[in-house]
Every structure is written in C-alpha cells, then in structure tokens.
Amino acid sequence: MTMKRFHRLLSALLCICMLSSLLPPGAAAEPSASPTGSVSLTLRLDYEQPAAQLQNRQVQAKLYQGKTLLGTLSLHQNSTTDLSGHPAQVSVRSDCLEFSASGLPQGTYTLELTGLGYRTFRQDVALGNYSQHVIVGTGDATFTLGDTNGDGAVDQKDRDALSSVLGSTSPQDLRLYDFNGDGAIDIIDLAVLSRNTAATGGAQLLNTTMLAPPVDQSAASKGLEDAGMTVTGQLDDLFSDNGKTVGFTASNEDPVTIPIPFSSPVEMEEIIITSPADASGVKKGRLMVEDEDGTLFEIPFDNTQPQSRAGGSSVITIPLGRRVPVKKITIVVEKTGKNQYTAIETIEFLKDIVPENPVAPNSEIKGLTATEGSEQVSLRWQSLPNISGYLVEYWLRDGGGERKSMPVNVPSATITGLSNLKTYLFTVTPTDGAWKGKASSPVSATPQPAKAPPAPDMVNVTSLEGSLAVSWKASENATYYELYYTDQPNAAASAFQQYGDRTTGTRMTLHNLTNGTPYSIYIVAGNSVGKSGPSRIYTGTPTAVDYDRPEGIPTEGVVEYDGIERIWLSDKGNVANGYYTAENPFRESNMADGDFKTHWTSQSYGDGNFSRSKQVNCTFKTPQDLSAAIWVSRMDGSFANHLRSYTVTVWTAEDDQNGPGTVIAPSSGQTSNTRTWPAVTNMGKFALLPFTPVQNVTKIAVTVEQRDYLPVSLSELMFLTYDPSRDLPNDIAKLFHDASYTSLKPGVTQAQIGGLRDRLNSDEGKYYMDVDILADELNLAEELLNGQSRGVILDRLYSLTGQNNYGQGGSTLQPLGAAAQAQADPSAADYKIVVYASGIPEGESVTVYATQHNAEASTWRATMGTLQNGRNVLTVPKIGSQNTPRGGSLYYAYGGAHGGQIKLHIRMATDIPALELSDWYSLTEAQRKTRINDYLTELAAFTQTVDCLNVTEIATPSVLLSLPASSVKQATADSLYNTILAWEDIMHICLTTQGIDKTYRDNDMNVRQNIRCMQMFAGAFMYAAGNHIGIGAGSCAGMVAGKPVVNGNQLFGWGIAHEIGHNMDKLGKAEITNNIYALMVQTWDGSQNIKTSRLEASNKYPAIFTKVAQGNPGASNNVFVQLGMYWQLHLAYDGADSTEFFNKFFKAWKAGTYFAGQTAYDDKVALTASAVSGKDLTEFFTRWGMTLSEATQEKLKTYEKETRAIWYLSDQSRRERLSNTEAASGTLTFTAAVEKENPKEVKITIDSSKLTGKIQGYEILRDGKSIDFICQPSSESELTYTDVVGSANHRTYKYSVVAYDILGNKVTETSVDNVRIAYDDVVQADKIESTERNGTTVTITLTEETRVSGIKITGEIPKEGAFEVTVNGKTARTGNFNENNQAVDDTNSFVAYLNKPGTETPDTRIWTYDAETVTVTGIPEGAKVELIRYAGDDVSITAVGRLSKAYKYGDKADEVIPKGTLVVVGNYRGDPVYNTVKLLGQYTVTSLDVNGEAVEKEVITRPVAGETILFAEIPEDNQVSDISDGLFLFIPDEQEEKELQENDRCLGNNLLPSKIQAVIARTNEPDSTLSQHATAQSAWINSPGGDTLPTIVLEEGDPK
Questions:
Q1: For 1345, what's the count of Cα atoms within 13 Å in the CB-facing half-sphere?
Q2: Is residue 766 helix, strand or coil?
Q3: DSSP character at residue 374
Q4: For 1064-1103, b where at least 16 C-beta lie within 10 A, e where not — what string?
Q5: How many C-beta neighbours within 10 Å does residue 422 have?
Q6: How would residue 1454 be classed by pLDDT, with cut points 50, 70 and 90?
Q7: Residue 1569: pLDDT above 70?
Q8: Average pLDDT value over all residues in the chain
Q9: β-strands 246-250, 256-276 pairing
Q10: Are 17 and 309 in contact (CB under 8 A)?
Q11: Which range has the top average pLDDT, 225-229, 1259-1263, 1472-1476?
Q12: Is the pLDDT of residue 1561 over 50?
C-alpha cells in the first residue's frame, strides 16, 4: 500500500470554467441574459494507481441536469470535449484526476462517479450564485476503493473475498483485487482494503466563482470618473466571459485605477483577473480591499509570467489569504506595456479556493490555526503521537525574503520578528530526530499592529495643470491614508477637508483645482487601531502650462525662427514617437517655428537608446554674428532640467558647408569626451549655451547631453547675436582684476561705473539677460572701490574625488560658506545667486549644490550647476514641499588637482559661519586654534531669523558637520579642538576595522562622512543614507562635544558609530554587521580595547550561548544575538591590536580572496574567516545556523581544527586571554531526574565544587545533541536546569553535561543515562470548555473537535463497578473497574482505551475519535476524569532467556522456533502492520594489556543481530489497528553475533551485550522502510550473565 502526498498546481480548470474561453476560435458562444457557471471535480488518488489501472477499472464521471444525462467521460486520460453542448475537460495528474464542465445554466445537477472495485459516488450540486467544485478521494468514504462485490459498501465481505484470492494470478482476480496494479494480489492490497473498511470523511463542496456579483454600477462609474479614468466598453462585460474587452485610460501620469464597489458585502477568498497577453494587459499592481467593517488592506501582485488561457489571454490570481466579506475592491495597475492604458477581459470573485494540495484524511497535521499579533503570529495545531517535535516553516506570501524555520517540541509556536501587515505562510511538519513527516497545508496570517501608525513623512507635491500629484513614504503599520487640503493660507486644522476616499496606496492626485492658487496639504495614516496625527504641512500650487515666450530672453538681438532657413536632426530616428500621433506627427520644423507648444523629444532609457545623437543643425537666411545659443525645452513637465552639457560647431560663409566645420565649444575643439563639454547654464525655463563670439555664421550644429538617462527636448532654438558695440557684460567684467571679481583693476573710477550703469538703464539693456545681475556687478564695483565687499570668497578649493581603492563611498560635498533661500511664491521670479570663478583649469570641473536645512531624507539636495571661469548665474531650487522656509547651505564638489589656484566669489547669498579644517594635518597647533577662534568670533556675531539660513559648517579631514548655528554656540575653542580629535579617532577605528590602514594624517579616502541636521522619519533616532548621516535637531549639540580616546572615549555614543557602520558595512546584514563598527568604537580604550560592549552590558550572552548550543539552522531573529557571531571572531582572534582580525577579513572579503568560486553568503563568510584565522571553523558556523556547501567544508578541513569552543566566548573571555589566565580543570557530577509533578520535565542538578579556575558555563546534551547552555553563577557551586521534553513520550534519554572555561576550553564531561520519559498524553485544560457532573456521570465538552483515544481516572478510583464511555453520543468503550486497567505510565491511575464503534466486547485495539463531547458513567465523587489524546507507541522488555520447548508461531512448516533458542520477550503498544521492534545493545570493547589481561577500552552501542516477531490479538472482524498490549519476540542471530563480537573483542559468555534496550519504530507505509522512525524506547536493562540463562515458556503467545 502506498499512501501519497498530493502535489499539484492550482487547477487550470477553475480558471477556464467559463464558456467562451474553452471554445475553439470562431466558436465562442453568444452571451446569454442569465449567467452560466461550471461544475468541477477533484478526485484524489489516495492510493497509487497507474493510468492503465484506471482504464481497466472503467473509472467514469457522469453529469446529469435534473434527470437528464448530459454525458459520460472516461477519467483515465486528458481530454477536451463537450457534454450536450457544454465544454468539458479531463486532466490526469499523478496524484489526482480533475474534471470540469462549464457554460452550464443555473439549476440542479448530479455528479456520479463509477468504477470497478469502487463504491459508487453521487453528489447533488445546486448551481446558483456560484460555480461548484467537488473534492472526493479513493481513501475516504466517498469514491472508496475496495467495494469488490459492488454492494455500495467496503466491509468484511470484501476483505474475506480478497483474502480468499491472495496470491492468485488469474487475470479476472487481478483486475478486481490488484488495487495498486503491481501484478500481484498480496498483503499490500489487503492493507488497502482493511484501511478503507474504516474510511471516514465525506465530499468537500466548494463555492468557487461568483456568477453574478452585485457590483454597484453607479458608484463604480462615479469612482472611475473621480479617479480620472476614461472607460472604453461596458463595465458589465468585466463580470461575464462574453469575449468583450474593457479598456481603461488614466489621465496625466496616474496609474490605472479601477474601483469596484458592491451593493452588499461579498464573501470571497480569491480574485482572478484575465486580460490580454499583449502589452495592454495587466502585469503589475496592487489590489486594495475594503471589508464590510471599513478595514482596508493591500495586496501587491506582479505577474510577469502569468498563467495562460486559450485565445491569447493571461491570468493573474490574487489570494486574499482568508475568506473576507468585501465591500469594495480597487485594482491599481502600476505597469502595462502601453503607457497608461490597460485592457481587462474578466474579473472573477471566488468564495472558496480549490486547494493546491488535496490530501487524504489523517495523513498530516490538522487543525493548524494562526492568531495574529503585533509583529508576531501564534500557531496552534492538533498534536500527533509518536513524534518528538515539529518544524514550523514560514515565509512571505509575495515571495520576498528567505524561508525560515523554527523547531518546537509542543503543538504550538509563536513566531516573532515579523513585519506587520505583510502576509506570511506557515506550515508545520512533524519531526522525530532526523525523521520528518509531511508538511501541513500552509495557513496564512498577517501580523496586525497594536497601535496607530505614525504620521506619514517624505511627502512630495508635484504641480500639474489644475491638479497636484502627491506622494509620500509608507508609514509603518498603516493600512490606509487620508489626504486633507485647503486653499486658505495659515489655516487652522478645521479648515482642511478630506480629498476623496481613503487609499491604501502612497500617492494621490487632486483634480479640479484652481491654477495659481497655493494649497496646503497634510496626510493622516490609519489602521484598525486608529489614526495618526497629521503629517507636517506641505504646499503646492497647480500651474497651467505657460506656452508664452519665457521671461528673461532678451527682446532685442536674438535670432529666432524667422531668421532660420532650415533646422534638422543629425539622427532623424532619435524621436520618442509616443509623444506624437498620426494627426500630429513629429516635424523637424517644430524646433524653430515660433510655437512653444510644438517640440522635439528624444528617446530615453525607457523607450530607446539614450546614447543616440542629440545634435540639432540649422542654417540661417543670412550670415549671423553669434555669442550664444538659447535652448528652450518643452514647456510642460520638468524637461528644462534634463540638460547637462553641450558642444557647438559652426560654419562661416567662407567654409565648405559640407565640411567638418569648427568646434567652438568646448574651447579645446575636442568633443570625444563628454566630460570635457561645457555645462549648460539653466535659466529656469530655458538654457543658455554661451560660446566664443564668432562672425559670419551660416550654419551651426548644437549637440546636447542629458542628465542621467532622461530624454531631452527642444521647443525653440534661438541665438544671441554678437555686436562689439553692445558688449556691456564684458565691459563690466573689464572693471575687475580677474574672473573672480574680488578686486578692481587699477585706475577704475566712479565715473566709469556710472557710465556703464547709464548704458544698462538705456534701451541697450533690452539686449541682455540677467539685467539684475549686471546691476549687482556695478554695485560690487562700487563696494570694492570703497574698500568693502558683501560677498563670500574662497581663496582655494579642497579636493575630494570620491575615488579610493577601498570601494568605500561617502560625501564629496564641501562648504561654500554661504546659504541661500529659495523662492516660495511660484508666481514670482526664482531667487538666484552668482558665483564668480577663476583658475578652473581645462578638464576639471566644480559643481555647486543647494541643500534644504533640516530636510526629509528623500529630498534634501539639488544640483545648481557646473561652474565656468567667470560669471555663473545659478537659480536656487525649491527642495521639498513643506510649508517651512525653503533653503539651506550651499556646497561645491571638486575632485581636481589644482584647488590651490581656484578662487570662488559668491554673491547674492547669505554669509554663514564656516570652519574649514580639511587641512588639519598641514597646520600647526597654533594655526588650528587661530582658525577655531576666528570661527567662534564669527559665530558669536551671527544672527539669523530665517531658520533655513541659521546654519553652520565644520569641515574636518574625515567628517563634515552640517548643523544649526545655534547648536554650536555653546562650544569653546578647547571643546571644538577635542571634538575634531574625537572625530578623527572614531573614523580611524572604523576605517581600520574595514581594512583601511591609511588613517589620520595618511587618510586617502577622498570622501567624508557628512553628519547633517535632518528631520527624523518615524521610528528613527538617527539614520544613514550613504552620502550622509541624518541626526535630529536635539542631537546636534552633541556632535561638537566629543572627546578623543586619550581623554576617555567620548566618541559621540552608540548611535553615530552605528550609522557610520551602515555607511561602511560590506556584509550587508542590516542592523547586524554594521554594529561590528559600533562595538569596536564602544570598546576602544587606546590600549587593549576591552571596555564593556553593548552585548555584555545588556546581558545578551545567555541568549547567544543558547542559540549556538541548540545549533538550529538559520539566523537568530534577535539582531544583537546574531551580532554575537561576528563579535566572537574578534574575541577569539584579536590580540592587543583589536582590529587585526576584521582588518584582514575585510581586505580579503572586498577582494574575494578566499571565495573559491562560492557565491552563497554563508560559504563566503566561513571561507574568509577560516583563512584569516587559520582555523577550521566549520563547527563554529554550523552552530550559528549557517549552511555550508560540501566544497566549503572540504576546504575548511585543510586548516588546523579550532580546539576551543569559541562560540561560548564573551567579552570577559578576551580580557582573560589577554591577561594570560590559566585554563580551568577538575571534574563535575550531576543528577537527572524526571519531575513527579510534570513527567515532561527533567531536572538536572550540577555540582561544580570540584572544578577549579574560571568557568564560563555548562553545555547540556540530550542523547548527544546539545540543547542548551547555562552560565556559571558568580558564587554558587550547585545549579539546576530543567529540560522540558515537549511532545516526546516513552523515550529513554542519556544526558550529558560539559563544562567550558572562560577561555572556551572543554574542561570535563560526564553523563547520566537511562532517564525515561513516560506519561499519559491527556487533553490540556484550555481545550476543555466545561466538565459537568450528574451523579456518577461526567460529561466533558471540548472547545473544538479534539482527538481522544482513552480516559484516565485519578483520585478516588473505584475498586469495582461498570463504566461506559460515549463520544459524540456513540458508545466507544464499556468495561469494569476491577479488570482491564490499561495504565502503564501512571500506575496510580485507571486507564481505558477506546474501541472501534460498535465493538460489543472490549478488545486490545485502540480507536481514536474526533471528539466534541465525551461522557463517562460510573464515576463516583472524588474521582477525576481526564481524556487521553493519543496512547502513543510504547515498548518494554519483560524477559530474556532460552525457550523451554519449540514454539510454532505460524501456519507454515518452517514457522517454528526451536527449543533452546535465545529470545528476548517484551510488550509493545502500537500497530503491528506499521510497527517493528529492534533490540539495541551496549557492548564493552576490551583489549589486552602488557600482562595479557583484558581491560575495558570503550562501550559501543549498536543493533543486536536478529529478527523480531510481533504478536497481536486478531479481533472478530479481522481489522487490526493500534493495540494496547501486543507481544514481541526478538530472536538474536547467535552466529552473526559471535562473528561481530569477535571482531569487536567484546565476547561474553552468552553473546548478549552488557545492556539491552528495545526500540519500536513506525512507518507510514507497511511495504516501505523509507519513512520509518523510532517512536518509543524501553529503559536500558542489564543482560543476564553467566552460562545459564532463564528458561522461557511460551503458551499461546504469553511468556511464562
């Protein structure tokens, strides 16, 4: 007999149950007025039967409509046909058969299954609101295999008939009785039939697809309109498979959003979306579900490889995880193949899901339930007998993350460390040592938050025409969001109103707003517990696209479209065709036609080759003298910000117009390297591309490059003319000594300045851009003339290339010493600053950045532009959408080699205090202090009322501090000096830990850590973002209050080192491996570095030791426990140089030196650590739960084995090692005893009084497997440990205790064996709802259906009298108290096991019931009734000796045991069909000493050679099951034992071992040992000695 586990994919039949999808092309049925549905079937093959067997047995399905037979289908092969015009399909799998008929009108149907040797099955099916699915099996009481006489029952008659033909080879007999098709009628077929005579369980009927969902069409239409959706087709067509497609188009850049409200709640468990398989179909998105209570939850879906349907469709199946009464769903499509258009064919709602793995009854764990908590899920399930534990496995339903496991030894588990609002799947598998049973079907659970979510942050508001697009970061534990807005300035909270409905997404577009009106917005997050407070307030102003000529372009001296003869693209194919239509195709004339609505848009990363040429050519009607190009990008969107750099090539009238022309920008004439191209000057809505003035130009080519991979665009190309007589900007520039504008040329007078001002104020000013800048330059000239200047001047630049040899990133920002505020009014002109630069050599660049002070992490920095020598006009960008002042510090980035010759002069910005000490190591102490004191003087005088300008910068060699100026004002010269030393110390520690040896003066990182004052997002105290570390305003003052190690290690606390660790981490285990750096900093003392670590201070070592003692696979859920693995490598291998190990480790890790081709993280860590330490660390890493490949294990064997248990090291271990502490020594003793009050607990008492030295603790082992570690108390020599065994029963254990000293050395080990666990497994109190007594009758009501196998009476047990046990109203056992007490484990009790229903005379069989109520009569007052869940297998040895006479045990002639045979006799409890008993022996191995005397060498344990015979009472109905008192007889093979013992040198007088133990094992399949595992053990007993053994007399199976 072979019972099989079922593996199958979700039936495609369910997904194709609608009519038109099954019809061949051209045969689609016309839609009818009433809905049609399907009737489908899953037939489990609970016993293995090949297809030929199914054919020979004529397994068929018939479908009736009323009394009319629609048709008959054979189920032995795949087929597609129709039943009276209704499409039907049969699918044959290895473990089940599937049948479906679809296109059925509503009504009553009957499904009938027939087959030779099966009980005929009929099921009436009412096709009403749902399609119907039926699940039956060949091993339950439906289509039961074994009805050989066709009387509709599988019973004793069938069993007798099969018994009579055992061994027959008649074809007729084989066809009827050979159930598994192996060509023989044998005990396997008999076992199948025997089992099926007791088959239980009926058909499972599932409501699947809803045929006419009550969609509220009116509300759906309004919801689509509110969402800005355009619908093509009728919504009704979505819910009937009529071959019609419904299309949805979103406005702007919104995703397609399809709300589907119901007029009444609809129960559903799964949703299926069918769409075209082409680019218009649904590929990715999210499903938002609102239940009848208004609770919202979201399920993402991503189906890049969806299931296929006929006709070129694809299917996305979205399980809800449980049955939910749904009030509304919203489908949000985030990605389709055709812009924002999506087509859908059908949407189906399933009330019940056809299970993926239909299983036979009683073949796996049942009753698995999940209770959701905050960040945890509690699981419970019905216990199983004859096992020692369970393995819980869990993983995210969406496939993200790793699959994790948790072993337990009781039928419950609480899984912690989960993410709220993410759905997990859980399975439970029974285990027993190395044996594993079948995993249960998964259950899903979604941990729920215990409190309301925090307010959302990182909100971004994008202005659109008449709309605002709002997005935000998801709030932890939020299930929905509400958006509130108002157009009233500085409004109270009551003035805000909610926009639209709640959403489960993190974006929303507000439509129908007034252009030009500022709106204030805040977001509220919510969940089932409550709502957050409002977010910060953000602002946005809807803006109509302004297609007028951009302001700032001169009104005179410009060549526009009317002066251009022709304009064209060099690469005519570089056009993003998606922006054009057949009615309005792209024309090259778009680029110079005077119409700012027309444009050219290039391809980009998303729709083509972003690297294609973006060169625009034009010729002029007449030759022109030019000085710059004006590039006007598309006026909509953000295209004006996409340009990065440019080149210009010209042809004059004298040139060959077909020749190469002359490159005038860049000035080098070389265009091959885009990095040398000049940067565009962004003027807001247009860009200025200046070049060396050139005359007589007839043709020009302008080439641009984009930022990132963005498209570039051009609506109009214009040019500034050049007229030497109108060169006011250059005339003004001539006033200054050089391009930095920091001094005047000798001889400049006020009269010169005044004359230039007069020209600027005349009509000549119409020819120039940035007239206000020119006016400021004249003001600057006057200031310099009068000996003063209001600008910020940098006399040199410092270089940070961002490049190093260590693969380490960071910040390259350097302070300009200035801050700037952005324009808050969108209708006003942007604020600008001017940077005058000189000395920038060709091939080098200086880029300027703006930042937002106290910003959110998502929006804090923006590029302003790349500087050229001379005047650079830069617009101050508005960063972020909050309604606080926008602005902050300005920075430059420079990575060249000539910073000493570059000078910058910043005008129209705010001068801020800045301390520049990047060159700290080239300064003397006096110079350092001078700079610090000058800075403090400037800081003291600095006052600024605008918050975003109240900033300061402190630049050190390793760190840039960007802080509020007010947070530094309390600093002194000494404290700042010490602070800089402290920052250098902390970076030295972190760098050397990561294998970077050049620190302090030799630092060659070329990046810094930028510590910035930032807004903290929810739950953050500080954060790391790679290019900066954000700290809250309250932490800023502490950043200038550090002390170096020599002054006591005040290195800014755990948080900063933790965040620096994030930025430097190379192992990538967030919140774990970054803390290696934090621990190094924390323990640093400048000497041996043995200060207290966080692991020691927070007492994490006991949990660490338990983790490694148990050695379960996988990492710990506790990040600090898992951190212990990495820290112990430091504790084990670092000497006085406390960074040596990780210094070498990270050098090798970054280079991949020891990876040896391995790619798995565990392998790479183990290989690198072992190579660096020179030790085989296999046991260390496997104890920590890592999985190492065979190749890795083989490589590690080449290193010297690590003899210390370094997994038991603590901080103190390293201190002791560095202090040369001696190893401990001595012995210990302990006792191990089963607790009387709780027989599942073993109390271990350790006496360590004979140990000397420093002891770390004691490892506890059960049967050689470590189960825990207990630390040595500081003062006690005796300590106790309690081992809770859990589910194991009738087991005999050997306990060992190993002492380890503080250095990790194994000191001593001792063992205690023969500790036996045996108890009656009673139903726990929490499963009992009530216990009621009526006289001598006790009724127990259970909280849920619970398995019960017997009763146990304690207290005042009756001496005599009758009793009766009924379960669910049926008699399950009768008897008398003065006989048949079956108690074994608790002899002070009375136990009676339940019998098969209908048994008139009690027998030895044990029957298990699924009980709801149990009633016991004959129970007097003072007696307590308990229910036994499972009897469980048990075994014991009763006698050892030789037979007094021959014993015949079977019907065959050779089934005789001769007189004098050595036998071991015992009792067992179990099922003789599935159990076997073997004998284990302990043999004493001896060797000869120098005197030829035998001495004991070792004790080995092995099975005793021989065979076992199991005896059981055969009941009247011949059905054998679990029995309570079977007999076993073990017959040692004396000849084989003699040979074995001679080899082992452990001969005894009678060939018996020193001790023996009986072990009973069970298998799931009687003809296979593959699933066999030990289920019970007897106690070890001493074998009888001497030549004369006791005599055994066997009479009718009982030993005498």
A1: 7
A2: helix
A3: T
A4: bbbbebeebbbbbbbbbbbbbeeebbbbebbbbeeebbee
A5: 13
A6: confident
A7: no
A8: 89
A9: unpaired
A10: no
A11: 1259-1263
A12: yes
1462-1470 β-sheet, strand order: 1506-1511, 1523-1532, 1462-1470, 1434-1443, 1591-1592
- Lookup: tokens for 1395: 């019998």
Which pair of tokens denotes residue 1557? 């133990």
Structure confidence by residue, pLDDT tens digits, 1403-1453 = 888 888 989 999 999 999 999 999 999 888 999 999 999 999 998 887 778
Is residue 390 a contact partner of residue 431, using CB atoms and an 8 Å limit? yes
Q: How long is the chain?
A: 1600
- Region of 657 (left: φ > 0; alpha: ψ -120 to 50; beta: rest) is alpha
Q: Over the range 1199-1215, which residues count as b (16 or more CB within 10 Å of their CB) and which as e?
A: eeebebbbbbbbbbbbe
Q: In sequence order, which ranges of 350-471 are alpha helices (DSSP H)?
A: none
Selection from 439, 442, 444, 443 nearest residue 363 by Cα? 439
Question: Is pLDDT larger for residue 1088 or for residue 433?
Answer: 1088
Asked whether the beta carbons of 269 and 353 are under 8 A apart, the reply is yes
Q: How confident is the model at residue 249 (pLDDT cuts 50, 70, 90)?
A: confident
In angstroms, how far apart are the furthest CA atoms of the chain? 141
Tell me 752's DSSP state: H
Beta carbons of 6 and 44 less than 8 angstroms apart: yes
pLDDT higher at 681 or 1221: 1221
- The CA distance from 509 to 499, in Å, is 9
Contact 701, 616 (CB under 8 A): yes
| Residues whose CB is less than 8 angstroms from the CB of residue 375 and which lie 6 or more positions away in sequence, other chains included | 416, 417, 418, 419, 420, 447
**What are the C-alpha distances in Å from 779 to residues 386, 760, 873, 971?**
95, 13, 16, 37
Residue 1502, C-beta contacts closer than 8 angstroms, at least 6 positions apart: 1480, 1481, 1483
| SS3 labels along 972-997 | CHHHHHHHHHHHHHHHHHHHHHCCCC
Per-residue tokens: 144: 């039961």
Amino acid at 492: A
- Two tokens at 1015? 């807004």
pLDDT digits (tens, 9 = 90+) for 1056-1103: 999 999 999 999 999 999 999 999 999 999 889 999 999 999 999 999
pLDDT band at 306 (very low <50, low <70, confident <90, very high): very low
pTM across the whole model? 0.76
Rounded CA separation 41/73 (Å): 12
> In one letter, which amino acid is 680?
V
CA-nearest of 1103, 1026, 1116 to 1072 is 1116
At 1013-1056, the pLDDT tens digits run 999 988 888 999 989 999 999 999 999 999 999 877 889 999 99
β-sheet bridge partners, residue 391: 407, 429
Residue 1161 has pLDDT above 60, yes or no: yes
CA distance 387 to 366: 15
Q: What is the pLDDT of residue 1028?
A: 96
